[in-house]
Each structure stands twice: as C-alpha cells, then as structure tokens.
Amino acid sequence: MARARRVTVAGPKAPVLPKGARRTTPSPETLAALGPDRLIALILGETARNPGFKKLVSAALAALQGPDAVAAIIDRRLTALEGAQGYINWQKRRAFVADLNTIVTVILSEMRPLDPGAALDRLRRFLNGADDVLSRVDDGNGTVQAIFERASDAFVEIAGSLPSSEAGRVAAGLVAAFAADPFGPIGPILGAMIPSLQEDALGDIDGRLAEADAATLKGGDPRKPATQHREAGRIQILRLRQAIADRRGDPDIFIALERAMLPGRENRVEIARRLLGAGRPGEALEWIRRMQDPGLRVATRADLIAGFDLRGPERERQALEIEILDALGRTSEAQTLRWSRFERELDAPMLRNHLTRLPDFEDEEALQRGLDHAEAFPQPHRALAFLVNWPALNRAARLVIARPAIWQGDQYAVLGPAADALALNHPLAATILYRRLLDGILEGARSAAYPHGARYLAELEGLAGRLDASAISPAPDAYRAKLRREHGRKHAFWSLVRD
Fold first, then answer.
1. In sequence order, what are the residues at sequence separation of 6 or more whose Cβ sits closer than 8 angstroms to the Cβ of residue 491?
2. Where in this protein does the record put region Disordered (predicted)?
3. What is the pLDDT of residue 130?
C-alpha cells in the first residue's frame, strides 16, 4: 500500500530583509512581519502607558478627518497652556517638557501637511506663550528653551516653503507683534526670514518698522530721558532694519541707522566692512580709522568670567584695516601693520600673511627675524605657545631649558600641549614642563586634576631613560622620592599611579 504524501500549506512569506539586518531591530521590513493585529495591540498597550504617545496617536486619527479636527486638539492644549499659572516643580517637569514637545510635534507632523497656514498660526500662538512658560519652570539646562527654538526654526522653514508673496505677507504680519515686544520670540523669526524675502516684501516690512520706530520715539515723554528699556527696544527695531539694508546691499542706509542708534559711538568695523564690500574702500578706510568713543565697550566682570577677549575688538579692527589697505593697493602700509601686529601680540596669522606677500628669498630672513622676536618675547608662556604651534620646536625647547624656573603649573593650557609636542625629540624640555604641571597639581591639592597628574608622572618615567641624569636636578629617581616624601598622604593621587 502506497504511503500517503504529506501536504504542507505555505503561510505568508516573511519579508526579505536587507543583507546584514537584524531581525529584532524595528524597521519597516521587520515590523511588517508582525502583521496588523499584533501592531495594533502594541500601539494600544503603549497608549495606555504613555500619555504623550496617546496624544500623538489621537492626532494622527484626527488627521484622517481633516485639518479642523487636528486644530481642535491643538487649540484645546494651547488654551490650557495659556490659562495655566502654577509653578512646575521638579516632579512635574519631565511630563511638562514631554507635553510641550508633543504640541510642537503634532503641529508639524499632522497639521502642516494638511494646512501650512494653520500650522503657522498655531506655532505663533505657541511661541507667544514662551515668556509665561519659562517663568513657571526651572529651565537651568535649557531644555524648555530648546523646544521654543525648535518651534521658531519650524516657523521659518514652513514660511520659507510658501510662495514668495505669501511668505512676505506672513512676515509683514509679524511686525506689529515684534514692535510691541522687541525682546520676544518674533524678532529672531523675522530676522531669519529676511534673507529669503522678495524686494516688495522687504519694502513693506521696512516701512512698518520705520512707523514702529517713530511711534516709539513719539510715545515717550519729551521732558524726560528715554527709559533704558524703551531705548533698548528701539535698537532692536533698528537692528532689524539694518538686516533689511544688508539684504538690499545698501550700506548708506545701514550707516544712517547706526548713527540713529549710537550717535558718535557707531560700530566702525561693521560700517567699514559693508563699505569695502560695496567697492568703496576709501570711505571704508576713513571709517576704520575714526577715533572711537572709549565708552563704546567696557568689559564687565561677567565678560571676563565668560572669557571675553579684551584684545579681540582691536584685532578685528586692525585685520579689516589691513584688508582695506590691500584693496587700495597700499601694500607697504598693510605689510607694516601686519608686522607691528605680530610684534605686539605674537599674532601667528599676521606673520604668515606677512611672509606670503614677501618676494622670494626675503621670506626666510623675515621668518627667522620673527622667530627671534618670539623667543625673546617678554611673556614667556605666550612665546612658548607661539613657538609650539608654529611649529618651531627646537626654539621652544631652547626657551624651556634656558628658563626652567619660570613655568607656572596652572598654565596647563600652554604647558600640557607643549610638553606633549616636545616629548618625542626634546626629552629634557618635556621633563621640565611635566614636572611643573605635576608639582602645580600636587602642591595645590587639585584632586580633580589627579588623573592628569598620574599621566604626567607616567610620561616622566617614560622620559627618564632618555635623559642624562646630570642634566636635571633632582634626578628622576630622586624626583619621585621627593614626591613620595612631600605628597605621600595624597592617597587619591597615588591610587592612580601604576608602580
């Protein structure tokens, strides 16, 4: 009797995955294999656990009914946000941030494809509440601010995708709100839109801004000086008008507005830069060389803490002056300024630019003269940084060895890279610097820097075999014994040191 044949019923074929793809990694191909019922179950489970995800799913379902249904969801949430007054403590902050993100996501993913204009209206309404929201939540890490920046960027991107006439109308419609609150979120949006607007829209916006400026001046009591806040708001309006002048390539309007803002204290660098760009180098030189009111910029303690470079403004001014002189064909004057700038500040780009403009065979002589000047510079740490970065490592090593006692361990931003650069071919100079760095860390008990100190000690031990023991005092073994004797109780440091 013949054996019955087994019949196999083929099920649905599994999707073909890309080569190398993991079958457990979510992707369109792997998720399709789950089938609709399983996916629906997963979505329903997540909506029960995650309120933010539930809102996204609800908005996606509303989008099937049209923009009005999505708008109703967004408007309810915006109304609730506008009416809220309570402070958001740390326990509620995470959920609050997630909810703000969800609002923006729904506007962009569901409302925008259906009705870009309505999406812009909701984004603007959301941004109008930025000050109230930020006053109700501790945003020390900038997370909430980043959400409003995301909304601002989206507004600019959506408006930029509209037909030019419509984009101009949207931008013009922002002017009144900006004038009412020059420090609010609308100013950055307008500023970002200006470069892409057409000429007719720019004219309309500039006219409205001029009217707002006039109203600001008229609104003050002429018998009293303008309040600092009102004057600062007016400057914001004029800055936006300057952006329009730049877009139109009109330096004269830019200068007139600068004079209106800061009579006698105009930003001569920005004015000169625009005149040079307009092919008017003679006028640019006149502006860049004008005497400046010394009260234009006074560095505050906050500036210094933030790392404000006191030499930066003059460096920028002089670099532009040199560029203008080159444009005028006054090469000799430009070269003199480059060299004097280098001599005064050890400005490496100035020296490089000076050398590239010299005739053949003169550049090498000028380079040696420049390196001699750098090696003898009265500020040794700046001199060392220049020589290492140029690079002129032989000279840097000679400078270190000639003056071993002057190097300060707290100047680690200079000494650390210098020691690393010198270690390969100049072990004595590198040893001097590593020792100064390590001594500074241990003598100051700077525990946060102990890992760096342990590395410096390891570098010193690696260099020890390449040194003549008589070249440095104390010798390597004696130096380590001295560290043990003077800092042996700093267990946090020695625990990092490999014997």
1. none
2. 1-27
3. 92
State the Cα–Cα distance between residues 199 and 221, nearest whole angstrom.
36
415-449 pLDDT tens trace:
999 999 999 999 999 999 999 999 999 999 999 99
The tokens describing 47, both together, are: 């909506």
The domain locations on the chain are 42-248, 379-499
**Partners of 137 in the beta sheet?**
88
Place of tokens 């916006």: 205
Place of tokens 């190398």: 20
Q: How far apart are CA 24 and CA 43, in angstroms?
A: 17
Place of tokens 């003169």: 362
Torsion of CA 88, 90, 94, 99, to 10 degrees: 0
Phi, psi of 137 (to 5 degrees): -140, 145
**Left (φ > 0), alpha (ψ -120 to 50) or beta: where does 83 sit?**
alpha
Specify whether the CB–CB gap between 472 and 431 falls below 8 A.
Answer: yes
Task: Say if CB 265 and CB 295 are below 8 A apart.
Answer: yes
The candidate with the shortest Cα–Cα distance to 186, out of 160, 156, 166, 213, is: 156
**Nearest by Cα to 399 from 365, 436, 438, 371:** 371
Half-sphere exposure in the Cβ direction for 204 (13 Å, CA): 16
Q: Residue 28: which residues within 8 A CB-CB, separation 6 or more?
A: none
pLDDT digits (tens, 9 = 90+) for 286-337: 999 986 655 444 444 444 444 445 678 888 999 999 999 999 999 999 999 9
Q: Please tell me what DSSP assigns to residue 88.
A: B
